[in-house]
Design brief:
Layout: E1 4-8, H1 17-29, E2 36-40, H2 46-56, E3 64-67, H3 71-80, E4 86-90, H4 97-103, E5 108-113, H5 117-120, H6 123-134, E6 141-149, H7 156-168, E7 172-180, H8 183-190, H9 205-220
Parallel strand pairs: 1-4, 1-5, 2-3, 2-4, 5-6, 6-7
Bound molecules: adenosine-5'-triphosphate and magnesium ion.
Amino acid sequence: MNAKIITVGAIKGGVGKTLTACQLAARLSQEKGKKIVMISGDNQGTCSIFLQFRMKNKNVPSFDLVSAKDEEVRKKAISFKQKYDVIVIDVGGTDNQSQRAAMSISDVFLVPFAPKSFEIWTADDVVALVEDLKKINNKMKCLCFINTAETIKNSKDNAAAKDKLKEEMKWFSVLDAKLSDRKAFSNASSIGLCVNETNYSMRDKKAILELETLYQEILKNL
Ligand SMILES: Nc1ncnc2c1ncn2[C@@H]1O[C@H](COP(=O)(O)OP(=O)(O)OP(=O)(O)O)[C@@H](O)[C@H]1O
Ligand SMILES: [Mg+2]
């Protein structure tokens, strides 16, 4: 085994890193025979709550989780390389040592952006961060996507945000996939499930399709 490492990061807080990382880890755990571990640098403990709920549900496959901070993130990830197929790292907050440590050994750096000009303005800082880390790890692929996209058809904000990302995000591929602002994502996450695992009363086909599209696009880059 030689685990692939995906870090979900950002410069701005609250853009959906933890939600994306948990949905991704849960979706990955559905792949038969694959061993998945999540490293959480997030001191809010959200990933661990997600996993506690998940483990109570006997119908869904699980994954492992450890917490780590700063340089420990890198050390743990390296020690997991031969034991797991995929390592998903959620780094909490803003630009911090945990994120830099994770990026130094990541195959994929995945950044969610909300489609508001305010969020997009951090693009420069994210590019500068990547530029720094590329000196240490130049094989890292950088992907970004729109999270909490507007659900209205042909949303101007979504399109404008995507155009701006394409213009400003040097080093990055701007994914076609997006996650819209849907209760299905937060509801499923609050009970430790991937959106495609919820029962029919909570089931949202559009959310499932969005997550699957994002997942497949990430796999293509892994
Ligand atoms: N696509 C989405 N649809 C609906 N709710 C979402 C979506 N993405 C994120 N959220 C919600 O937005 C809030 C912030 O998301 P999250 O905690 O994942 O952000 P974060 O980037 O990890 O924040 P922090 O920087 O504090 O670690 C959460 O309540 C989450 O459930
Ligand atoms: Mg978080």
